[in-house]
Amino acid sequence: QVQLVESGGGLVQAGASLSLSCVASGRTISGYGMAWFRQYPGKEREFVAAIGWSGPKTYYSDSVKGRFTISRDNANNTVFLLMENLNAEDTAVYYCNTGSLNSGIYYPHFWGQGTQVTVSP
């Protein structure tokens, strides 16, 4: 069983940047895909970004492409999400996930507890 702990959320103004971190314990993240999802109140979680186990392959939702960057540090069992030029539509709870990434399709396995990101207009 792997535990994921997100951090870095908070309240920022539109146009600002924020960096989220997710530290895994209980198992190495090496060899596994990692991803970020977000959830609006009353809505299902939606995919934001994913990264392959070795790093170079990354995937983004259309709504964040060009503004968000996912990266990973396997040595420290950590995945990051750099969010730039934030807008009010980015306000959500952001969840880290470890899973598998196959031919551009991400299959989520374990979830973190989430971190709130709030962007004021």
Describe the structure.
By secondary structure, the protein is mainly beta. Strands 2, 4, 5, 6, 9, 10 and 11 form a 7-stranded mixed sheet that branches. The protein has a 4-stranded antiparallel sheet with strand order 1-3-8-7, with no helix packed on it. It is globular, with a radius of gyration of 13 Å. It is built from no helices and 11 strands.
DSSP helix fraction: under 10%
Radius of gyration: 13 Å
Cα-to-Cα separation, first versus last residue? 39 Å
The chain-level structural class is mainly beta
Percent of sequence in beta strands:
over 45%
Run of helices and strands: EEEEEEEEEEE
Output the number of helix runs: 0
The count of DSSP E runs of length 2 or more, i.e. the number of strands, is: 11
What's the overall average pLDDT, rounded?
Answer: 94
How do you describe this structure in short?
This protein has 121 residues and is mainly β. It has no helices and 11 strands.
What keyword list fits this structure?
mainly beta, 121 residues, four-stranded antiparallel sheet, single chain, seven-stranded mixed sheet
How would you summarize the topology of this molecule?
Layout: E1 3-7, E2 10-13, E3 18-25, E4 33-39, E5 46-51, E6 58-60, E7 68-73, E8 78-83, E9 92-102, E10 105-111, E11 115-120
Parallel strand pairs: 2-11
Antiparallel strand pairs: 1-3, 3-8, 4-5, 4-9, 5-6, 7-8, 9-10, 9-11
